[in-house]
Amino acid sequence: MDPLSRLMQMSVDELRRAARMRFRLLPDIPSILSDFAQSIAQEIRSRNARNEPTRLILPVGPVAHYRMLVDITNRERISWKNVYTFNMDEFLDWQGRPVPLDHPLSFEGFMRREFFAHIDEELRIPEDHCFFPHPFRVDEIGERIDELGGIDCCYGGVGYHGHVAFNEPPISRWYRVPVDELRNSRTRVLMLGDDSIVVQSIHSSGGNSAAIPPMAVTLGMRDILSSRKIRLYCAAGERHRAIFRIAVAGEVSTDYPVTLVQGHPDAEIVIDERGAQPIEVGLR
Q1: How confident is the model at residue 176 (pLDDT cuts 50, 70, 90)?
Q2: Taking all residues of the chain, what is their mean pLDDT, rounded to a whole number?
Q3: Measured between alpha carbons, how far apart are the two ends of the chain, in Å?
Q4: Helix (H) or strand (E) holding 252
Q5: Does the pLDDT of residue 245 top 80, yes or no?
Q6: Rounded to an integer, what distance in angstroms lies between the CA atom of residue 121 and that of residue 78?
Q7: Would 177 disulfide with which of 97, 153, 170, 173, CB 3.0-4.6 Å?
Q8: Rounded CA gap, 28 and 274, in Å?
Q9: What is the DSSP letter of 90?
């Protein structure tokens, strides 16, 4: 049996013994989303209590936890006045320009419209504390992270092919990016892989892949791996089962960029109990 097939068939106990990254199981996907919201709230709550700033990298995908986070914030009166957020990535059109904020797939538009605007005004994050990667100012967001003292916690999902933010397996017929180069990659513009576009279309456009912007700007692995903590959530059901196993126990490879998180001193990946079970191949 080849190593990948063996990895897919390991029991959860065997996977724990083989894992190079800590993982945690929750009963179901709603529990994952609730944990996601509670974790962000607790990060801010604890740092507010020490009168320290909170510096976070945040994803758009998953998104359902943000409404929960709004409710927690407003109910418990958690101030975001000393919070700094850095969005992971953003869609670009075919010319490498940001999609408009009112585009239904704009990550910045979503964060401003569906999250920040719903936090009570007296608790709301200041406008100049929110940062989004821009294709024409690619170094700006990383420089701001450095100026503010680094990231306290990077939150994210995991892509079908193991991308964190849009750090996808590098696409080139001619050049293979070494692991160390991807590990030290900075904010950059890239074409999205076909698999990312297809998966995005299934979740966002009824399978209409032509509706998905073909390019993106993303934070690099350098800023993600430099975060003091990394918390990754697998909340997409079946499509996360294989990549979860590769993430925690697969060989480190640019073919699956999430494997670069292995060895981080405080990283954790969260999945539901069913999603962590051994994978059987067969028609259903």
Answers
A1: confident
A2: 96
A3: 23
A4: none
A5: yes
A6: 12
A7: 170
A8: 8
A9: E
207 sits in the region (left: phi over 0; alpha: psi -120 to 50; else beta) called left
Please check whether residue 218 is in contact with residue 188, taking contact to mean a CB–CB distance below 8 angstroms: yes
101-138 pLDDT, tens per residue? 999 999 999 999 999 999 999 999 999 999 999 999 99
> 191 pairs with which residues across the strands?
215
- How far apart CA 55 and CA 53 sit, in angstroms, is 6
CA 268 vs. chain centroid, Å, equals 12
Q: How many CA atoms lie within 13 A of 154 on its CB side?
A: 29
Contact 254, 177 (CB under 8 A): yes
DSSP-derived pairing of the beta strands 229-234 and 267-272: parallel
Predicted TM-score of the model (pTM)? 0.96
Residue type, 61: G
Collapsed DSSP state (helix, strand, coil) of residue 191: strand
Q: Residue 141 and residue 148: Cα distance in Å, rounded?
A: 11
CB 260, CB 267: distance < 8 Å? no
Q: Which residue has the tokens 């945690």?
A: 24
Cβ neighbour number for residue 59 with a 10 Å cutoff = 22
Grouping H, G, I as helix, E, B as strand and the rest as coil, residue 57 is strand
264 Ramachandran zone, left/alpha/beta (phi>0; psi -120 to 50):
beta
Q: Residue 133, by phi and psi: left (phi above 0), alpha (psi -120 to 50) or beta?
A: beta
Supply the pLDDT for residue 149.
97
227: which 2 tokens?
Answer: 């975060």
